[in-house]
Design goal:
Shape of chain A: globular
Largest interface: A-B, 30 and 30 residues
Structural class of chain A: alpha+beta
Oligomer: heterodimer
Largest sheet of chain A: 4 strands, mixed
CATH architecture of the largest domain in chain B: Sandwich
CATH topology of one domain in chain A: Serine Threonine Protein Phosphatase 5, Tetratricopeptide repeat
CATH class of the largest domain in chain B: Mainly Beta
Radius of gyration of chain B: 26 Å
CATH architecture of one domain in chain A: Alpha Horseshoe
Number of helices of chain B: 1
Order of helices and strands of chain B: HEEEEEEEEEEEEEEEEEE
Number of helices of chain A: 19
Strand order of the largest sheet of chain A: 10-9-16-17
Strand content of chain B: 35-45%
Radius of gyration of chain A: 29 Å
CATH class of one domain in chain A: Mainly Alpha
Strand content of chain A: 5-15%
Helix content of chain B: under 10%
Helix content of chain A: 25-40%
Number of strands of chain A: 18
Chain lengths: ~650, ~250
Amino acid sequence: MKRYIYILLTILAVCASACRKLNIPPQNIIQDPDVFSTPAGIQAYMARLYSELPIEDFRYSPQRGLNFFWIISPTPATTGEALSRDQTSSMQENLGGWNWDIWSGSYTVIHDCDYLIQTLPSYAKNFTTAQVNAWLGEAYFVRGMTYFALVKRFGGVPIVNKTLDYKVGTSTDALKVPRSSEKAVWDQVASDFDFAIANLPAANADYSDGSRANKYVAAAFESRAMLYAGSVAKYNNITLFDGSQNQLCGIPASAASAYFQKSYDAAKMLEGVYNLYLKAWSATDKAAQYQNFVNLFSDASSPESIFVREYKYPNSVHGYDAYNVPRQLIGPNGYSAEVNPTLDFVEMFGGVPKNTDGTIQTLDASGHYILYNNTMDLFANAEPRLRATVILPGDAFKGQNIEMRRGIYTGAAAGGISRLLPAGSRSQYPATNLVQSSNASQTPFTLPDGTKMNPAGLSGTFTGDQTCSLSGFSVRKWLNPNLPTSQVLENNEDQTWIEMRYAEVLLNRAEAAYELGGANITDAFNIINQIRSRAGATLLAGAGSMAIDTIRMERRKELAFENKTYWDLRRWRTFDKEQNGTIYKILMPFYSSQAGKYFFDSRTDERNDVYTYDPKWYYEQIPQGAISKSTNLVQNPGY
Amino acid sequence: MKKTLYYLAFCLVAIAGSSCSKIDNYPAPSNTLKGSVMDAGTGNTVQTETGGRGTRVKLMETSYSSDPTPYYFQAMQDGTFNDTKIFAATYKVSVEGPFVPLVLTDNAGSVLSDNSQNVVIKGTNTVTNLDFKVEPFLRVDWVGQPVFNADSTVTVQVKITRGTANSSYQQDITDINLYVSNTKYDGSNNYDPRYSKLTSYSGATGTVLLGQTISITTAGGALPQQDVYFRVGARINAGLDEYNYSTPVSIKYP
């Protein structure tokens, strides 16, 4: 009996002591003190915040969302900047497709910012005040960016500036935060950026290379956001109110000028701190101006880069070159030529012969094609920025002549060649007198002088497959001229994405100034000429000749293929005007075997892809899943 | 031991069997809601297009909440609607499309007028008819029949008038388009871009055409020898910029 008592007592002793030991924090979960007590912990936290920062970079497309590797429906192919074989119409963002959960994803980031903002102050004793303020500033910056990403898509969204704590078994009503008015969200974006500007240093103490925010980064994005808000207030005409008369979509027009002023002031803060990139520039040398604009996108020490996202093989990569090299430089993966600039885009630039209506001149006075010895002759005086943005037919890239040719015309050339199709025709080219190629394995054609020539250029255009240039052009911007063709692979490129550069800040300022009007217009004029001078374009004669479209077009040229035009067309509310049953134009070079010269035919996209932007897309559909979970959310109009 | 096993097996079968027998599916909806969206001025149904940019019917189940998540279904392009899978319930019904909204609000979001209709649907296999009288932004009416020209293009004539006197919906006409298609489902989302004639107007240049007979000729040369339908759509810059349409007409290739 005594033995049993001893055994029981032993068990009791063991159990009792065991119980005491259970009261320790779980060892397999990272606790607040682990993260918030050391700079390394904060850095890990920041790494996550920045990696989730919603910016439309190399890994973004409206079809597949943010941070997705496969970019074969590229953004420029939705804006009229370019054509692409995989993008054949206007589109709204495919929210919810390809695992892109913009709603939950954004609110997770906002939660993570809120958590840092609430928690860091209680660990402040571990750091200097400057460190704590800077990190708080970064959290506000990331939160402001995330609200910006939401409001530009949905209009008013729920504002959640405190982490929501749910106690199991209690009502979930408090979690169903309703949408705030659109204006309230833009004001939230402004106040988050204002906090960041006030608390961040001039150079980020952890990383000063532009990959993390400083006060000027926050100011630059504030200028972008406030310009967006001002444009919505001025140009939007879709409205939606909830039951409590909050305006969920649309901002009263009276608020526009205050937003433009805020955009202007924020942009002005960067004056003298950042500069336009001019390292290789020369006022008199067009080749230098071209090279300067090319270098701007690859020079890590560029004084123009304000905020960047860095890539590094193999941890963080993209596939920009693999998807976008011209067909003749195709990499081992087999992708190429996904972004083919439209003639509509190219016609925005100066230095190209034009008709009085602004379209490119390809015919002489008698209605015959103008003949050229080389395809580049048409672009001999083109603005250097155009050459640095677009590979023109016959231009050099990676030491090759990038050959773009639709076919060989074998008809008579004496007395001039008339149009192959009537003006405005959307039909196929007539096959008579035309030698074409259906794909890249071509059968050479024997010219009258006995030499052989492929019907189509090495980079297209082919009639049977669309791996080639569809428009007579190929994109140049961002491409790495030093990447060997064997390395032109998906998930293998690591160029830095420049999300914010000083040229945009200047253009924000010019646009805000013009919208404000009055004496500000001189400032807008000076800025546009600064941009044009760097680009090698002819300068504007006087402020009086400027219109809002002058500034908008300058912006579209300067920021083309940087995924900015998509958002500009949205905030100007001109997407549906530009894409209104629109078929974009292309420029097809032909070789006349009889004349031994080239000519160009300007026509609409041979595929007859029609672009029509539905105005309801200015406000995206709130995901149905979000509404099911939080029934206070009101859907946007038309969905 | 064996006995216990049998008992357990029996229990399992009993539980499994009873769980299956209780089917708690709600009976499938069987009531029908049909009707039409008519031009209050002319009594004709309001022509729209198929799909998301046409007229749709909005149902609000108001018996449990004054502000429920709405249920929508799409009307047909001729302005009629018919949904045969409606649950018995209390509904507030309205329609949305290229006409003056049934629920009008002012700039601050206060409801000025609400012409939604309330309907209680009970029982099963019932049919409820609802007609809505609306004021379309524009009326597009044919003037005569489309005419085949000598070059095998087609010229149509239409007259466009405003369907409402509401001062908030007197915006300028932005587009007048002749859509050509080989089905009658002809509209801004379905047309042959080679032959359709799309015209945009800026400022008041389109608005001055109101009330006049407008001639539009197909683009792109001779029409191919196949079924062909014509429809004219016009719109003003109001709401979601949806088009008002004429009826689709077909003509025989001569």
